């Protein structure tokens, strides 16, 4: 089938590549010329495991192409996926200007039937708004479908190729048949295809992300309480997760949730509630707790150094908002760095993928080490912000040698408490007893 994907970021590029992989003829449109030129040269502009191989294979086959021309894109596909940004605006609502801007173009440019499929995360009523915006400019027949995306960065290709569910929100039988065809390879492999009205589909996405953010926030609060009563949150979470009604996923405590989705989506649902005179009290608490959780290690670091951080060299391992991505949007590391810099610390960091993005954002406010051990040279403490695999089984003897003092503040609970004791570290983590 001929498919166009508008917006070639984490969602659009993965969607386009994976749909080409199942035999479709895909044209990806992006407004960013630099990005499109890179992709035309066969380069993936983001770090996403497994993407490069599929990307190269499908470009070679001629099924995956790129353009900056929206007109070319709209002439190409019968199905037009919108994978455009919906960032947080200054009030916490989803900024729909990208989506509605493209809807205007669609209205002005389409010359035959199209199914416009919204993959962006958008508030209830957006599909209707897109429909009305297009209709202002055309009498052409078209359908608008809500088809929220649930992939996770770092696992995006796997999540797209083997989704647990595919949600199609529309009452158009014609659109349903076309989308069922596109998604047949996945439903044949056991993915559930759920068809519902578009409003419920739009809300399912926000409700899912907000639920997961709430689950993480709940265990973070339990962790904070563990610290006060001397319990170990790792034991508590294992005990809780053994109940299949609770489940053990998304129950890892740490320095808060970040990324391009949870923070903005929880705020957007809260804001949508307000617009309907409904106060999502729970979400208000989630937003609030997460804000302080992101810097939960800072008072511990301050306490350890007796309040004096000026001129102290602190090493940071992990800058990305989570492992297996170069994405630093809303990363807890950035909050941590902001506070430590304010307190006068000198920061040297290491991340396997995200250093170029942080360098672009922070310039020379912090330094970047060539590897994880070099970052520790003469540092008075190590702070761990992201649970990259390479940090999980490090050479503790080497770490101790490099660090000026053997002190670790771990925001992701990577190490065993007994091991830290026998290796001779001062070790402070989240929701577990301090080792000293
Ligand atoms: N990142 C994720 O893991 C994820 C997962 C599920 C859903 N979502 C949702 O999907 C949407 C896209 O997210 P993303 O992370 O892929 O965003 P992104 O910022 O990585 O990519 C968006 C792309 O759209 C392009 N763009 C902007 N305006 C354009 C226009 N007028 N025409 C063509 N291209 C244009 C940008 O240049 C960029 O390449 C958001 O609503 C997000 O909430 C994201
Ligand atoms: O037990 C956990 C799990 C996650 N996190 C944090 O939560 C954030 C988000 O993690 P994750 O959900 O793995 O990453 P995303 O790529 O942001 O994916 C989320 O957001 C996407 C965009 O909407 C959705 O499509 C996905 O289903 C949803 O998981 C990260 O900061 C993690 O460190 C925790 O602190 N504890």
UniProtKB/TrEMBL annotation:
Residues 315-417 form the UDP-glucose/GDP-mannose dehydrogenase C-terminal domain. Pathway: Nucleotide-sugar biosynthesis; UDP-alpha-D-glucuronate biosynthesis; UDP-alpha-D-glucuronate from UDP-alpha-D-glucose: step 1/1. It catalyses: UDP-alpha-D-glucose + 2 NAD(+) + H2O = UDP-alpha-D-glucuronate + 2 NADH + 3 H(+). Its EC number is 1.1.1.22. GO terms for molecular function: oxidoreductase activity. Keywords: NAD, Oxidoreductase. InterPro entries: 6-PGluconate_DH-like_C_sf, NAD(P)-bd_dom_sf, UDP-Glc/GDP-Man, UDP-Glc/GDP-Man_DH_C, UDP-Glc/GDP-Man_DH_C_sf, UDP-Glc/GDP-Man_DH_dimer, UDP-Glc/GDP-Man_DH_N, UDPglc_DH_bac. It is an enzyme of class 1 (oxidoreductase). The keyword Transmembrane does not apply. SUPFAM superfamilies: 6-phosphogluconate dehydrogenase C-terminal domain-like, NAD(P)-binding Rossmann-fold domains, UDP-glucose/GDP-mannose dehydrogenase C-terminal domain. It holds the Pfam family UDPG_MGDP_dh_C. Belongs to the UDP-glucose/GDP-mannose dehydrogenase family. This is UDP-glucose 6-dehydrogenase. It comes from Sungkyunkwania multivorans. The lineage of its organism: Bacteria, Pseudomonadati, Bacteroidota, Flavobacteriia, Flavobacteriales.
């Amino acid at each position: 089938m001929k498919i166009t994907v508008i917006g070639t970021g984490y969602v659009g590029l993965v969607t386009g590549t994976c749909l080409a992989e199942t035999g479709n003829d895909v044209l990806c449109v992006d407004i960013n010329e630099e990005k499109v030129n890179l992709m035309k040269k066969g380069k993936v502009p983001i770090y996403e495991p497994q993407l490069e191989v599929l990307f190269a294979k499908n470009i070679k086959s001629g099924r995956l192409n790129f353009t900056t021309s929206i007109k070319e894109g709209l002439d190409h596909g019968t199905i037009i996926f919108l994978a455009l940004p919906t960032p947080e605006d200054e009030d916490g609502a989803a900024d729909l200007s990208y989506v509605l801007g493209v809807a205007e173009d669609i209205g002005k440019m389409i010359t035959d039937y199209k199914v416009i499929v919204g993959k962006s995360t958008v508030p209830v009523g957006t599909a209707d708004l897109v429909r009305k915006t297009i209709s202002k400019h055309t009498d052409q027949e078209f359908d608008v479908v809500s088809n929220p995306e649930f992939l996770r960065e770092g696992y995006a290709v796997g999540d797209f190729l083997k989704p647990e569910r595919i949600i199609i929100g529309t009452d158009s039988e014609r659109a349903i048949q076309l989308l069922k065809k596109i998604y047949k390879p996945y439903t044949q492999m056991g993915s559930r295809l759920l068809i519902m009205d578009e409003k419920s589909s739009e809300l399912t996405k926000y409700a899912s992300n907000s639920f997961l953010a709430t689950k993480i926030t709940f265990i973070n609060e339990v962790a904070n309480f563990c610290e006060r009563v001397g319990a170990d949150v790792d034991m508590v979470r294992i005990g809780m997760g053994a109940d299949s009604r609770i489940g053990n996923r998304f129950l890892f405590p740490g320095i808060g949730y970040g990324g391009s989705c949870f923070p903005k989506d929880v705020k957007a649902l809260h804001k949508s509630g307000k617009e309907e005179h409904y106060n999502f009290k729970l979400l208000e608490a989630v937003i609030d707790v997460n804000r302080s959780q992101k810097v939960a290690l800072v008072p511990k670091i301050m306490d350890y150094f007796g309040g004096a951080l000026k001129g102290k060299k602190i090493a940071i391992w992990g800058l990305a908002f989570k492992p297996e991505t170069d994405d630093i949007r809303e990363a807890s590391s950035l909050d941590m760095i902001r506070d430590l810099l304010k307190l006068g610390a000198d920061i040297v960091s290491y991340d396997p993928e995200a250093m170029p993005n942080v360098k672009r954002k922070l310039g020379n406010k912090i330094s970047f080490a060539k590897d994880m051990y070099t970052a520790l040279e003469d540092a008075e403490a190590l702070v761990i912000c992201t649970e990259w695999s390479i940090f999980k089984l490090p050479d503790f003897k080497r770490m101790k040698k490099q660090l000026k003092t053997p002190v670790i503040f771990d925001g992701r609970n990577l190490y065993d408490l007994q091991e830290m004791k026998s290796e001779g570290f001062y070790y402070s983590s989240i929701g577990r007893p301090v080792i000293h």
